[in-house]
What we know:
nine-stranded mixed beta sheet, mainly beta
Amino acid sequence: xxxxxxxxxxxxxxxxxxxxxxxxxxxxxxxxxxxxxxxxxxxxxxxxxxxxxxxxxxxxxxxxxxxxxxxxxxxxxxxxxxxxxxxxxxxxxxxxxxxxxxxxxxxxxxxxxxxxxxxxxxxxxxxxxxxxxxxxxxxxxxxxxxxxxxxxxxxxxxxxxxxxxxxxxxxxxxxxxxxxxxxxxxxxxxxxxxxxxxxxxxxxxxxxxxxxxxxxx
Length: 217
């Protein structure tokens, strides 16, 4: 069994969405300093690093991380090659041309944007899906969510999060700040992205992984 790690590292000084609180990681207990055990104290938002959004992130009603069936966050994934889309370009319905979506639970936008992680340019200018694609995801009963290598489903100049509101108006999830999607393109895999069980958590950092299933498509 081959498992691919799709998560960015959580660490002191890491980049966060512009305007969001910076996470802190403090060595609270240390064996080197004579303590019996190691212990790190940390503080961060529910949308730090690789994370997912519940629909309650933007909607008044919906599920939270503590009341959603955990199996919801596990399913068949499909990577769509969107590397041809340049800065601020709209990704349209053409990405589904000649694509078999039967049984697919999570679609992933592979744009190579994770290579910009840690740089200022990561947070702006990324390509983004059209309203039609968002509505298609919302209306497709099999698809539970969409995953991205970049910071936000909506363009960086859209503070009202209209695309989030479309997708998350149904029981879906949005997964952001992924990496290593290039290792999954053209392959069959099961996606696992389990959130922490926060009480009324509207989102959560996740350890996102993919389990490869052998034969290439």
